[in-house]
Amino acid sequence: MPVSLIRRIASPKKALTTAAVAAATAGIALTSAPAQAATHASGPDAKAIAHQMIPDAAQFNAFSRIVEHESGWNPHATNASSGAYGLVQALPASKMSSAGADWKTNPKTQIKWGLDYMNSRYGSPAKAWSFWQSHGWY
User: Transglycosylase SLT domain location, by residue (predicted)?
Assistant: First the structure.
């Protein structure tokens, strides 16, 4: 599959689905990358970490909805056209380094940065979700 086709797809989930369908059509099996260290969680683990970090149900639900739309809870999600990265699709991605040096691989660091961003820019995850609903981005 040409790289340019994947770059035109804005959603990481769509890109992955497109790549998987193309690979299956070509008879190629896709394999996952080698497992990271235990501190580098997967999507379901990231959601559990976020739930621990955001005890308020309404705020967690708002944060979760944003992350679901932005990255599908994939801490390695990358938007090829913009360079946005991670659970909360930070742009530029390197901004998340302010929350920790392990921002590229650690969902907890990405969640911390995302919460700080939502609280400072919008006042709360719920207010960020409200903005997201009316604009399709935050």
Answer: 63-126
Taking only the tens place, the pLDDT of each residue in 20-70 is: 444 444 444 433 333 333 345 666 799 999 999 999 999 999 999 999 999
Question: How many structural domains compose the chain?
Answer: 2
Whole-angstrom distance between the N-terminal and C-terminal Cα of the chain?
A: 31
User: Same domain, yes or no, for 115 and 61?
Assistant: yes
Residues 100/112, Cβ–Cβ less than 8 Å: yes
- Closest residue by Cα to residue 76 from 34, 122, 117: 34
Structure tokens at 9: 């797809």
- Each residue of 82-96: pLDDT tens digit? 999 999 999 999 999
Q: Structure tokens of 52?
A: 């621990």
Tokens 């990481």 — which residue? 12
Q: What is the pTM of this model?
A: 0.70
Do 111 and 59 share a domain, yes or no?
yes
Per the structure, the complete domain to which residue 3 belongs is given by 1-31
